[in-house]
Fold each of these.
Amino acid sequence: MDVKPMRGEASMSDTYEMDRRGFLAGAALAGLGVGMLVEELHAAPLFQENETPAGPPVSCAVIGLGLRGRETLAALAKLPNAPVAAICDSYTSEAYVKRAQTIVPNAAFKSDYKEALAMPSVQAVIVDTPSHLHRQIVLDALQAGKHVYCEAPLASDIEDARAIARAGAAAKTIFMAGLQYRGNKMHTHAFSFLTDMGKPVAARAQWRRKMSWRAAAPTPEREHELSWRMFKATSSGLPGEVGIHEFDVVSWYLRELPTAVTGFGNPNPKDGMEVPDTVQCILEYPSGANLAFDATLANSFDGSYELLMGPAFAMLIRDQRGWMFKETDSPLLGWEVYARKDKLGDETGIALVADATKLISQGKEPGKVGADVSKSALYQSLSAFLDAVRTGKKPAANAEVGFQANVVARLAHDACMTRSRIEIPKEALTL
């Protein structure tokens, strides 16, 4: 099977990359609504820590050299003891391959991923091809005895996702789904407060980027390959490619899976798209909590976030930054007295610092040091994968979790395509 280029190239990928990095590094951060900007967000320096060896080296191969593949290579280059032995893509344009080789100059390039799987030096494989091409690559990698990190969604098609997840669950090697927030320190840190603060009763999430999924390319055939997200046959749309991460966070925090989803998709998308460029979804959970989600390619206002609300608190998470907003009658946790406070519009948020315990042990004050935004969720997710490879411990984003998130996201896409409500029976979420 040929390995098609990964999901980001040309104008679409470059727009996304500039927007993503600008969001993380900008001088101001959009809050919860119009004019709600975080004040004094950068009053404290960012915590920087020198990496120390995490354990024995884990030699990797990256399959798919588009934007996501190159982001993966950049993250691996920063991780301790994560050498890249091979990079793979069926698209062999010299300029295209060189963009990846510049990041990992010592890696061997293979136009056939099976050649990389045959390399004894390759221990772990990261699959960064378009979602509809994951299945055979993952099955072959597991059959070859490799550890596998498969980007989320596992597949555009539910049956393909089931085949991948079953193989991952049965493998003697480590299999991890690329639900990167499961490995993101800010999300795991925020989750730890739910024991004291109580279960959320409602959630809201969004993803907004003004961009196009139509990619520029030298030939119509190449453009079609790169623009795979636009087409019904190869895409699970905004819910599948983007919303899956937000859906998974809320299901994780609620400790339950949704029972139904109602979706609304723009019936007249631009750029010749066959899937909606703007969607809204409502996910219903057994406890009575709902998640309201919206995503669009038409506007970038207010970026991306997850917001969870309970009787005593609300928590807002924006990738590497997070805040808690406490009700006046909520219990005193103690640490919040010393934490930094940020003004978000009419609200005051208590800044969450994921490495607070480590900072305190080093004699530092988390409120003054602030959150470390230099290590992306992808970086932390890959770090968790490599730690699992070294220790043999099952990762949080295991095969079953990856499959369940995939089913929810795909059915949310189907609901948006038909502007309808779809029930999610338990058997649909079972491998």
Amino acid sequence: MGQTLLVDVVGLFPGSVAKALRGSILGRAQERGLIAVRDVQLRDYAVDRHQTLDDEPYGGGAGMLLKPEPILRALRDLRRPDSLVILLSADGARFHQGIARGLARERHLILLCGHYEGFDARIRHFVDCTLSLGDFVLTGGEPAAWAIVDAVARLVPGVLKDRSLSEESFDGDLLEAPQYTRPPLFQGIGVPEILRSGDHGAVKSYRRRASEERTRRLRGAGARAR
């Protein structure tokens, strides 16, 4: 068995991410020691009696910002030589399957979850990268952390069978070809005959063409998924 991928999720709602990932495949992966997910309460790193984490932004404006001091204390406590620190923010690089593959090869991930109006910008000098799920706003970084950990953990060697990962969406930057199961006819809609032919070579070629066509149709300029 290889080394365990340790993921520390630093935020304001302890238990939200680790608890969500305890079921099914990722739960079993944690039981087998392939991955370990820890929720870290950021308030534990506040030093005043009110456990203050936020303050008003200089220059005015709506909302509050997360102060840099508690975050830096958390990083100094958690960080080790093989750690990769990821800030979760709407202006980060768009997360995708290629990034997930790279993160699955790491040994320790620290995910910093934003809240309120985000982070004091100076904390960016102490992180390794900034990621975003897309151009939309969440109430906090925990849902984004959950999605990223889920996408990364399933790629850790041993979590899934290799075949399960070989023909899925974004393999080779393509969407997966449409899949079908029984019955062969449903509401007047049939399964393509080639998929029932038993000709594995023809099926592979068909799926490749279908994957390319589907990617063009659903990921082309102005396309809308359906």
Amino acid sequence: MLESLITSKTKIKLLMKFFLNTNNHGYLRQLAKEFNESTNSIRLELNKLEEAKILKSQKVGRNKVYQANDAHPLFFDIRQIVLKSTGIDQVLSNIIDKLGEIHFAFIRGDYAVGKDSGLIDLVVVGKDINAAELERVRSKTEGLISRKINVLMLSLSEFDRLSANFNIEPKLVLLEKNDENL
């Protein structure tokens, strides 16, 4: 979807990186290595996005570190376009909203760090989740978004046991209920 609106593949990668998970940040050489592109093409697009104030930057040591500018008037619109183009909005509305008592849901893996790899790793923590309904909705959603969805269902106690593992990797939180057990 974004490819039909934005012709620069580098700009699309940057928007994905910074707007899929707005906690993401990066500097020129790291982004060039991550995207397997030249520093010149990355620098050109970073400069354009910063000039438009879509990205903000700050000096950290010798590096200029970029991040999504959440104060930009189009921040939420750009984020929604990126989420819709990857299908994460469909994951939210089709899967999480229809499963029942969900306490916590997040995406981990490539999408959590802003890479559109085609595989969405979704972790759902809740009580009495209907596995058959989850499978039906997951399958239907995969067809709508043309991406594979891998779902890990956990109870609250299972999540508590594994939370140390999840805390060491980046995650994109989709739903978090205020609960003392989390």
